[in-house]
Write a structure and sequence with these properties.
The protein is of the alpha+beta class. It is 18% helix and 35% strand. Strands 7-6-5-4-8 form a five-stranded antiparallel β-sheet, with no helix packed on it. Strands 2-1-3 form a three-stranded antiparallel β-sheet. The longest helix has 17 residues, at 2-18. The N and C termini lie far apart (91 Å).
């Protein structure tokens, strides 16, 4: 009986306005999805890729969309959003970088010492602000390294002095 009375009192306090405001929060993901099966069947040199925003983590996305024999997924960016995605609401957009040192398209060199990617040169593909680290994060694609994609903090990169590969003139 005492537990029931306590529950009634708690409900009365909540209904009377004693409850704090509660906000929902979820993690958003920007994924690059590759159709591996189509690539194998049609013997394509370069597989088709597309980007998407979702509230599903990469591992869950793969499991619910055919498995790793069917699709490949690369995590491009992740951030927190307020609210929820019920009733088919869209995922909030990726936050813009704050006072970015590099912009999308910039050629950069990795300057992490004793790291497997030390000295690698690539192109910035994604730039965004991540609140949890209070800084900008950059997604870099390394075209000369089998299109490897990795994310770095601003301090781990420097502008590349190498010139972009020259295109052959059209004849």
């Amino acid at each position: 009986m005492k537990a029931g009375l306590g529950m009634v009192i708690a409900m009365a306090v909540l209904l009377a306005g004693g409850a704090a405001t509660v906000h929902a929060e979820y993690r958003a993901y920007e994924l690059e999805v590759t159709d591996i099966l189509d690539c194998r069947i049609n013997k394509l040199e370069k597989c088709k890729r597309h980007k998407m925003l979702t509230a599903m983590g990469p591992d869950l996305y793969v499991r619910t969309h055919g498995g790793q024999e069917r699709i490949g997924v690369i995590l491009l960016a992740t951030w927190m959003c307020r609210g929820d995605t019920s009733r088919f609401r869209s995922v909030c957009p990726r936050p813009a970088a704050r006072k970015p040192k590099y912009t999308v398209g910039d050629r950069v060199r990795v300057r992490l010492e004793k790291h497997i990617t030390e000295g690698w040169e690539g192109r910035v593909e994604v730039a965004y602000y991540q609140r949890s680290v209070n800084g900008n994060v950059y997604g870099v694609r390394f075209g000369r390294r089998q299109d490897v994609y990795a994310r770095y903090f601003e301090k781990d990169l420097q502008k590349s002095t190498a010139s972009a590969p020259k295109k052959k003139p059209a004849q």
